[in-house]
Structures are given as structure tokens and as C-alpha cells.
Fold this sequence. Notes:
Elements: E1 2-5, E2 12-15, E3 19-21, E4 24-26, H1 32-38, E5 46-53, E6 57-63, E7 70-76, E8 78-85, E9 96-102, E10 108-111, E11 115-121, E12 125-132, E13 141-143, H2 167-170
Antiparallel strand pairs: 1-2, 2-10, 3-4, 5-12, 6-11, 6-13, 7-10, 7-12, 8-9, 8-11
Amino acid sequence: MKYTQLSIPDIVLIQPQVYWDHRGFFMETFRNDEFQKNVAQEVFVQDNHSKSIQSILRGLHYQIKQPQGKLVRVTSGQIFDVAVDLRKSSPFFGKWTGAILSVENKKMLWLPPGFAHGFYVLSDEAEFIYKCTDYYAPEHERCIRWNDTSIAIDWPIIHGNSPILSQKDEDGLTLKNAEVFT
């Protein structure tokens, strides 16, 4: 696997080695010893899988207690995936970075605890799988508005239309008013 730090160095884009032949392909999507050696000393405890249609935007989500690190990948379609640094002590606090993840490019993204996470569906539909370092705890879940001008994420919104949001995402707070990490 190839590991590339993005503009926020704690966010790592992972490109697996894909072996193609006339039958199709094979790739390792996760290997604990390699992940711990090259990315982070974390243990995953939960896997999640979601499916969304084009223009769905999910995020920016995080858990203020029981924060989750996430290793994310797409198994169908294409998304624009985003991480926002919410660690007040970080020189990248309030900054974002992102990458296009797709079934074609097979890239994965590592987001450590302390980041808000969101994604926007670019294809007709997309399936998204992610490993988490802590369990989902809805009582600790928080949401920052996807279009907070202080963060200024450059979402690749299709045809300039508003994204489709859940009520939770509609009600997201600005970074200025949100709980963050120390």
C-alpha cells in the first residue's frame, strides 16, 4: 500500500496495491500490522456501511466523547470525502482537507480521532464502508454545518444545486458555536 499525508498531515490517503488479471482483481483493504506501522497505533472496534444517492451530503459529524478514528472507503460509486480538524491545540484547527474516493480509484482515507467527517455523493449512488476506533455513541454525537463559512469547504456541488441533508445536518452548528477537542 502507498500512504500519502494530505495537507493536514494526520489525514492519510491510502492507495492499495491492486492485482488485476482476466478474472478481475484482488486487493488487501486492511492489514493491521501495516496500518499500525505506517499510519496509526489504533484498534478498530466497529465497521459501518451506508448507501446514498447522488447529492446526499452527510456531515460534518464527530463524537465529542468516545471520539472515533475512521478508515473510510467506497465500494460502489464516487464521493468527495472531507475531514475538519477540531483539535484546538492543532496548528490546523478549523482547517479541512478532502479527497475523491471511488470504486475505480480504490483509495481509502484515514481520519484520526479529533476530526469532523463528512462526504458528498458525486455518482448516481454510492456505498461507503468505514472502520471505527470507538463505538457509536449517539449521546456524544455532534454536527457542524457543512457550509460553515469559517471552514469554507470547497464542496464539488453538482450543477450548483443544494445538497440533500438530513435534519441533523440541517441543524448543525457553526464551528464557532460547536464543542471541540482540546
